Every structure is written in structure tokens, then in C-alpha cells.
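seq as requested:
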Amino acid sequence: MNKPIMMDLRVAPLKDVVRQLCEPESCKEVCRAPMHDQPMPSIPALTEIVDRLKGILFPGYFGDSEVTPESLTYYIGAGLDRVYRLLIEQIKRGYCFLCRFNGEEDCDDCQEVAVDLATRFITILPHIRALLATDVQAAMAGDPAAKTPGEIIFSYPSITALTHYRIAHELYHLGVDMIPRIICEMAHSKTGIDIHPGAEIGNHFFIDHGTGTVIGETSIIGNNVRLYQGVTLGAKSFPKDAAGQIIKGLPRHPVIEDDVIIYSGATILGRVTIGKGSVIGGNVWVTESVPPGSRLTQQRPSSQLFSGGEGI
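C-alpha cells:
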């Protein structure tokens, strides 16, 4: 007999919560209305794209492990066809997702733009593989624990993060909306290595261990650079316009020249330059440029004995 009364008591506050959550002011910043009947980019689809690209870039290590020289052409061709079709759809979704932010009233050219960008991206894959091959070489040369290139490809978080980054970076430079950041964040969640797709990273790049490493959007990293875990290449400040809004897109992260080593826990902030061949020691805090060949380390703690209030 009491159940209907209890239900009535519960329904009233539920209705009030629903009303509050549906108010326009509550929804303004956190709710999305689909533009042009296009859904958001799909995380499962983007995951499949990256997984298939890993199989294409590193045949035999990812995807079908039974691939042979005789079946390689078919394997890569079929994989690229699937990636191409999926990528067109996801690029179109990302493009339409930002229509309202870009002031676009219609998306008549969305499909055409998506096809063009996906086609251009596919042509860059040999370049991406060539860069990743140098990253594997850098890991092999820089880590005495590495026994074979295959071990590095298959298990090192640095290669996982760099594979995602190098794919996302090329999409970023093609002007693909939203998707590059999602792809890099997928690797971030897996490895703890946070690389913005806008960062510029040269060849033979290695992040040893890697956990907690952060590389900001406007960072520039030269060739043959090695980082260790916990390194931050970050911004020191964020300039604002007259309205108090952060000015986006300004160079605000470090420039790391060729042949630099940065040890674990080092923090380098602002648009500073670490000169070629420099070594930055662990836990060092850097906010000013250093010339080529520099060696920065923490000052060693000193001890002093006192007798009768005087140092001896």
C-alpha cells in the first residue's frame, strides 16, 4: 500500500532535476546539437584506423602476424582501402563537428574535403614509416637494455606514442579538425606520454621509459634528441588579448636543437632554445635559453660544520 506513495515522493525531485538539466543555460557549454545530421567522430572507428595503420607501418608486428612477402601487397592494399574509407567518414564528422565554431552554415563540400584530405594523408604514409624507422634505430642505439628492433617496435611505449603522434601530426598539418588530438590522447592514455600533434619532432627521436613526459603544441625538437621520463616541454605564460582571453597559436614552448639529451624530471618552460649537443640533467628547471654544448645539472648540496657559532 505504501509503494505508490514512495514512488510519488521520488518522481517529484527527479522531474525537477530533469527540468534543471534541460534548461538552455545549463546546456549551453556542455551539450552538442548535431550539425547537418552528422554524428561526432567515433572513438572505435579511430581506434580501428590507428590499429590498421600500425599493421601497415609495421607488417607482421601488428594486425595479421602471418603476413608473408608473397601476401604483403594484398595485405597492405586491403588495409589501406579500409583505412581510406573509414578516414573519409571520420574527417567529415570532425569537419562538421566544428561548423558552428567556424561560422559555417552548410557543409555542402564536407564530403569533397574529406576525400581530398584522406587521399593526401595516404600518400604521406611512406614518409611516416621512414621517420618511425629512425625512431626505432634511436631506441636501439640509446637503450642498452634493448636486444632487437622487433622488441622495441612491439613493446616500447615510446614507439606507441610516436606512432600515434606521427600519424596525428600529418593529419594536423593537413588541416584535419579534432581527429589528430583524439589520436594523440589515445596514446597518452595508454603510455602516459603526452605529445600534442602540433609539435614538430625530427628524426631519430627516443623517449626512454617515457611515463609523464609532456611535449607542448608549439615545441620544436631537432634530430637525434633523447628524453627520459617526466620531462616537460611546456609554456611559461599565456599572453591575453584586450578582453582577457588567451591568445592561441603563439609560439610558447621550447626549441630543442639536434643531439640534445634531457634527463628525467627536467622542466623546460617558455620559448627558450636548448642549444645543439646540450645535456640537461635530471630535475633541472630551465626558463632561459642555453648555448650549444651546455651541461646543466642540479647544484650539489654542500655541508658545513659549525663550532661555537662559526663555520669551520
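The radius of gyration is 25 Å.
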